[in-house]
Amino acid sequence: MERAVERDIVHTKELIVNMGPQHPATHGVLRLVLEVEGERIVKCTPYVGYLHRGIEKLSENLPYVSVLPLTDRMDYLASMVNNIGYCVAIEKLLGIQVPERAKFIRTMMAEMSRICSHLVWIATHALDIGAMTVFLYAFRDREVFLDLFEMVTGARLTVSYPRIGGVRCDVNNEFLDKLYNFIDKFPKHVEEYEVLIDRNRVWLRRTRNVGVITAEEAINMGLTGPTLRGSGVYYDVRKFFPYDAYDRVDFEVPLGKNGDVYDRYRCRMLEFRQSARIIKQCIEKLPEGPILAEEALKIRMPTAAVKIDKKDIEVALYIEDKSIEEFVQKYPEVYASVEAPKGELGFYVVCDGTAKPYRLRLRAPSFVHAGALPKLCEGGLVADVIANIGTIDLVLGECDR
Amino acid sequence: MTEFLIRVIITAIIALVYFGILLLHVAYATYFERKVIGHIQMRLGPMVVGPHGLLQPIADMVKLVFKEDVIPSQVDRVIFRIAPLISLVAAMTTFSVIPVNQGWYIGDINVGLLFVLGIAGLGTYGLILAGWSSNSKYAFLGGLRSAAQMISYEVSLGLSIVGVILLAESFNLTEIVQKQQQYWHGMFLIPQFVAYFIFIVAMFAETNRVPFDLPEAESELVAGYFVEYSGMRFGLFYLSEYLAMFCMSALATICFWGGWTIPPVLLKAWPWLGNIPGIVWFLLKVYFHIFLFYWIRGTLPRYRYDQLMLIGWKVLVPLALLNIVVTSIIKYIF
């Protein structure tokens, strides 16, 4: 009799909730299929690929320089870092030495990008948890950085500013002054966000001990960036494999302890300040000199007979087939990574001696982090899913590529 | 018989005027909300329609009325249509006994306070039925959340008012206001500050406002129980939410802030204050509470479902019970 009740009459089943791809809190087109028992998550399955544009495949059919704008479209919140990552990889492939000034400019721009990306993160993370005001405060500050990008590069989001062997155009004093003045004030603005959310009981309750991931698990899942550092693992590409001018600026890598949503939040909040510190140092130490490597000029010989001098480098868009060959003999394949705001962004390039990459493989942190979602969400409540999506800082453009 | 008919007609006219004014207040409460939150967030709020966006609520209403009313194919049609009306009627009926000034009311009944609480509780049915009949998972979760939330917070809301009832020795709203005049400060807020605190917290939960807006949590459940609604039916839910806010604010004003009266100590110091009509004081106090709703919405994140329950049952209810015990003892001794 009891068994009959169990089997037939009282039959409970998990409710399947399809969260996304269109959902206000999934940051684009992430789709999560949740099996919920009441409010508790029993199973969480992420589905990605709704924003797939085939960047890896497309780049096999493009000259090295023309791949650059594609990388803008990956993590569109920090396109500068993507560009730099690609350039660093190709420079490593071709053995190009980047001039000092370009290195410092790149470092500065990368950190500006990191601040921009983190600003969008804090804005949406707070909005998801319900604190609406932080969203507008953060976007106000982001606007300043986007305007600064526009001053130098002419674009606000998809900048395509770095070039293989340097940067596209030089920064002027007006830009540096504006940036320095704002960066000077910026840590105070960060404090403003902290006042709004960090000392707020509701925020603490929503983030502490939610989505806990231990150091070991984090490493096993391949997490990187603030998501890994929140668990207390000291790993930062900028410190371990310094590129650009990171070995000449002074900064700290903030670490968390418990690996919960709150610690990851703290890590990123501290990174704001470290980024501001790096930008300040870059402006102070910015050396004079060329902004594009000599070798890069040689490689950039256009096929059309356009006379080139250093000033109108922009005309140079194609790589001469022959000049690349000798480099390729030495380095047929290369992996280089940079510390993107989301985590370690890797570029693996296989070169077959032609002007186009044979294979370009991107290690997108968002993709790896999306894989950690089931671990983070299962056992939690529906509201925690939102906090977890926010805390791993997904950008689907990068995840799906 | 004719006398009775005339009384009915007069009451009906009063009710119509009352609700007309009330709905205008609700419309402009949305404007007020957008302005307050706008300024908290360092932007201007509506500025385009009319001077300083003053016609925005009218434009919104026109838009909502003329929108296509989509009823999804999988819903339970009858309940889907009735649900917003239940919410609205419940929210509006509460106002029939709320006095806004000495003698300004539609009906004056001796259990006014209980009537308001009872009818306000009925509004929950609208939310639950909307969530259930929509046949959508988000709406379903929203409906369940609202059911649980309303039940738990109604308890603490009711218990918090018991202290006031003990002091006023009456359920009649007008009498509650008059009893507060016996103090020099003219409000129950000071002897009943614990009850007021509980009332305010429960008030936010009852009206589904931040930080307790779980049934409609936009980042989790998209829009919660009214996710499938559109056009004016959606508008009706909105309307009833704002009406509920007004009702709760009015109740807080009457029970704790002395309604339309001003503290006797102020009146003694500045006698000319007595010339200002009571309705002005009443509205000022109500709008202070409305402002409180908006202020908190601009400041706080949202609680999680289990934390909401925890606060309701483990903090507010014991605190309210303690308040009743202490109030009773003090009342007995003095």
Automatic annotation (TrEMBL), chain B:
EC number: 7.1.1.-
Presence of the UniProt keyword Cell cycle in the record: no
PROSITE patterns: COMPLEX1_ND1_1 (PS00667), COMPLEX1_ND1_2 (PS00668)
Keyword terms of this UniProt record: Cell membrane, Membrane, NAD, Oxidoreductase, Quinone, Translocase, Transmembrane, Transmembrane helix, Ubiquinone
Subcellular localization, as worded in the UniProt entry: Cell membrane; Membrane
Keyword field contains Lipid biosynthesis: no
GO biological process: aerobic respiration
Transmembrane intervals: 6-32, 78-98, 104-130, 151-171, 183-205, 242-260, 272-296, 308-333
Membrane topology listed for this record: Multi-pass membrane protein
Superkingdom of source: Bacteria
Reactions mediated catalytically: a quinone + NADH + 5 H(+)(in) = a quinol + NAD(+) + 4 H(+)(out)
One GO CC term, this protein: plasma membrane
UniProt GO molecular function: NADH dehydrogenase activity; oxidoreductase activity, acting on NAD(P)H, quinone or similar compound as acceptor; quinone binding
Record text on subunit structure and interactions: NDH-1 is composed of 14 different subunits. Subunits NuoA, H, J, K, L, M, N constitute the membrane sector of the complex.
PANTHER family for this protein: NADH DEHYDROGENASE SUBUNIT 1, NADH-UBIQUINONE OXIDOREDUCTASE CHAIN 1
Family listed: Belongs to the complex I subunit 1 family.
Summary of the function given for this chain in its UniProt record: NDH-1 shuttles electrons from NADH, via FMN and iron-sulfur (Fe-S) centers, to quinones in the respiratory chain. The immediate electron acceptor for the enzyme in this species is believed to be ubiquinone. Couples the redox reaction to proton translocation (for every two electrons transferred, four hydrogen ions are translocated across the cytoplasmic membrane), and thus conserves the redox energy in a proton gradient. This subunit may bind ubiquinone.
Listed name of the protein: NADH-quinone oxidoreductase subunit H
Organism of origin: Thermodesulfovibrio aggregans
Protein's gene: nuoH
